[in-house]
Amino acid sequence: MNEPNHLTNSNGCPIADNQNSLTAGERGPVLMQDFQLLEQMQHFNRERIPERVVHAKGSGAYGTFTVTNPIPQYTKAKFLSEAGKQTDVFLRFSTVAGEKGAADAERDVRGFAVKFYTEQGNWDLVGNNTPVFFIRDPYKFQPFIHSQKRNPKTNLRDPNMQWDFWSLNPESLHQITILFSDRGLPASYRHMNGYGSHTFSFINEDGERVWCKFHFKTKQGVKCLSDEESANTMGLDRESHQRDLYNAIERGDYPQWRVCVQIMTQQQAEQFQWNPFDLTKVWPHDQFPLIDIGTLELNRNPENYFAEVEEAAFTPSAFVPGIGASPDKVLQARLMSYPDAHRYRLGTNYHQIPVNQPRCPVMNYQRDGAMSMGYGGSSPNYYPNSYEDTPKEAPEYKEPAMRLGNVAADRFDSREEDNYTQAGMLWRVLDEDHKERTANAIASVLGQADSEIQKRQLCHFFRADQDYGERVAQKLGIEVDASMLPSS
Ligand code: NDP
Predict the structure, then answer these.
(1) Rounded CA separation 327/15 (Å)
(2) Which of 166, 263, 370, 398 has its CA 20 to 30 A from that of 134?
């Protein structure tokens, strides 16, 4: 065994000299044989991963969410079910438009993404410090972001591009007003509110759905910088918000937020003066008052910024039973685009990175892919299967249908469609020799499956055509019994 303080290479082999290259003679050249030198150079070249296109510059911390007021009348989410119940969280704050090295104190919207490690899986609320957004249709997101980033020719942020887009898309005005108000320059991440922004679903034990919005109200009080203060801060410290958050947590001054929800019934949604799923609109507080549900506290800094903040992956599609999506078009697009971005940035197994791993068992049939840690072991990798001790569907968690005008969004069972008639028609088209060849080909492979599986499959042949079933049964040497035949 190596001594615990021995320097080793990535294979665990002790390194005797980590400061002098292996050379042919004292003055060189360097030898290819110095594998550790090559390894160090090569690993260094690969240290960076793709930068997030938006929200590239971030700060993160772990903490706790504590329920103060359970709301079982609205949601069956277990982590919200009892006063005093605590759930671990990880929160990543960010600026939106700047690159990874951007200054924290720039005028910008701020990301406010919370991962709740609940007993029923991770719930990610991937929000901002504003309750609305610049657009209401996801078609406009990529062009919008292009207009806020760098001019393709000058490589400069370009007010002409920004206002060209905004002036052609007046749905941005609400968010523009917030951005250019004092709150566009938060004094720190601790001194700003967070919002889920989109409308979401709450579903209770009775399968009743209401619409909801999430609010995180800073207990530190909202504090903002003036333009002059922002310029001075950026001149002195590009990492002002990272420093403030890190230092506050290190000195035990743990920032807290009141966590509140607004509730809108489906009936209220039909009568609301605006589209309740429009991301450019809030629900006025006097009509939909804030209901306190808990407190969020940040109380632990990450140990390794890259592994825990840079590799943190939040996705609006990470829901838990009792919380779901809404028809909000931008939310619907984000349900896909966030996991897609993580697959590009971190790889298809980004869930297996410790900061992203659920704290409850994960059991499904996804397997392999780059950097897989062997998840799933030797258990079957397909579903449905015939084995007892494999993960099974849990129909009690089925979401109620979502009413959308005259139709409903639901999972419509297609398994009982007519599966047999056309297979039987094809069987009867085959001539005698062809039927023999087909039955032989089937039996040669099906004969290698478990006997239970052979019998189950024979039932299907019989339902397509009596002769089809009899012929395959005969090739398999299986005696036909009444249980295999369709009931007339
Ligand atoms: P209310 O009159 O009930 O409350 C005013 C809201 O404005 C408070 O939430 C306050 O936040 C917030 N506010 C104050 N200054 C700013 C600012 N510079 N940027 C963003 N928010 C600010 O509001 P209504 O519900 O009738 O909504 C009126 C407007 O308030 C909305 O159009 C929206 O821009 C803003 N707002 C509304 C929210 C909502 O969910 N209804 C949420 C956040 C903002 P605080 O409580 O921290 O002082």
Answers:
(1) 58
(2) 263
Kindly give the distance from the C-alpha atom of residue 228 to the centroid of ligand 1, in angstroms, as a whole number: 25
In this structure, what DSSP letter does residue 158 have? -
pLDDT given at position 1: 81
Tell the CATH topology of 58-356.
Catalase HpII,  Chain A, domain 1 (2.40.180)
Q: What percent of the chain has pLDDT over 90?
A: 96
Locate CATH 4.10.91.20 in the chain: 1-47
What's the per-residue H, E or C state across 268-301?
HHHHCCCCCCCCCCCCCCCCCCCEEEEEEEEEEC
Residue of 171, 112, 116 lying closest to 141 (CA atoms): 171
Q: Which residues of 276-289 are buried (b: 16+ CB within 10 A; e: fewer)?
A: bbbbbbbbeeeebe
Q: CA-CA distance, 461 to 479, in Å (whole number)?
A: 14
CATH for 1-47 is: 4.10.91.20
Torsion angle of C-alpha atoms 428, 430, 433, 438, degrees rounded to 10 = -90
For residue 347, which amino acid is it? G
CB atoms inside a 10 Å sphere around CB 239: 15
The token pair that represents 169 in the structure block: 């898309």
Helix (H, G, I), strand (E, B) or coil at 260: strand
Residues near 295 by beta carbon (within 8 Å), at least 6 away in sequence: 65, 66, 68, 219, 256, 257, 258, 259
For the chain, give every residue range classified as CATH 2.40.180.10.
58-356
Q: What confidence tens digit (pLDDT) does each residue in 329-373 have? A: 999 999 999 999 999 999 999 999 999 999 999 999 999 999 998
Q: What is the pLDDT of residue 488?
A: 63
Peptide bond preceding 384 in cis form (omega within 30 of 0): yes
- Regarding the beta carbon of 224 and ligand 1, being less than 6 Å apart is answered no
Angle subtended by helix axes 451-464 and 421-429, to nearest 10: 80
Check if 281 has its Cβ closer than 6 Å to any atom of ligand 1: no
Element (DSSP H or E) covering residue 58 = strand 58-67
Which residue's CA is the nearest one to ligand 1's atom 46? Answer: 217
Q: Is the CB of 282 under 6 A from ligand 1?
A: yes
* CA 131 / ligand 1 centre spacing (Å): 8
Candidates 9, 11, 20, 128; catalytic one: 128
Most ligand 1 atoms within 8 A of CB, residue of 197, 285, 286 to mutate: 285
What's the N-to-C CA distance of the chain in angstroms? 72
